[in-house]
Amino acid sequence: MLAKRGIKQMPKERYLYVSKPLLINFFLVLIFLTLIFLLPFNTGSTKTSSLFKNKEIFSDLDKAKEIFFTIKLRESLDRGSVHRLYFQVEVPKEIDDKSLMAVAQRIVKETISQEYWHGIRIDFGRFGYVDFAPYGEWEKAGETAYPRYEKYRFKCILNPLYSLK
Questions:
Q1: Comparing 103 with 65, which gets the higher pLDDT?
Q2: Rounded distance, CA 132 to CA 136, Å?
Q3: How many C-beta atoms lie closer than 10 Å to residue 154's C-beta?
Q4: Do residues 121 and 86 lie in contact, with contact meaning Cβ atoms separated by under 8 Å?
Q5: Which of 52-62 are b and which e, b meaning 16 or more Cβ less than 10 Å from the residue's Cβ?
Q6: 107 near 130, Cβ under 8 Å?
Q7: What is the pTM of this model?
């Protein structure tokens, strides 16, 4: 009847309806993504930094600042997913065992603060070598896919003929 008098009928408004379960799922996903974003990303570095505070493992680290040394060779010895690192280091001719250990601790600290390795060997030439590996055993490096440094220890194999103690 209104159409006959020249009055146009307004089209019905259309709304987008979303089902309640779909809306709830959307908000749950949004909350989940927000929680993931708020989690700390550097969980590995906190474990590494707590390792450096362990004075039992890194007991001579402060001494290393005074010692001059040269890294002659840095070589990756990778086998499959096991990453090992080998250093050849030149030190002064007159050096004692504690100083060698301090140099080894400094090299290990600088290396594992930048990248992950399963085992590190530092060769001091005629003075001997130092390993940083799980339980101090070079052969056990790579037992776990991700290096857990809290089980790592230093193992010194030094030549007694050149030792100053």
A1: 103
A2: 6
A3: 19
A4: yes
A5: beeeebbebbe
A6: no
A7: 0.64
Separation in Å, CA 92 to CA 12, 106, 124, 162: 91, 16, 10, 12
CATH among 3.40.720, 3.10.310, 3.30.450, 3.40.50 for 59-158 = 3.10.310
CA distance readout (Å), 29 to 21, 99, 142, 153: 12, 55, 37, 43
CA distance 96 to 128: 12
> Tokens for 159?
């030549």
pLDDT, position 73:
93
Phi, psi (rounded to 5 degrees) for 136 = 80, 5
Q: Would you put residue 79 in left (φ > 0), alpha (ψ -120 to 50) or beta? A: beta
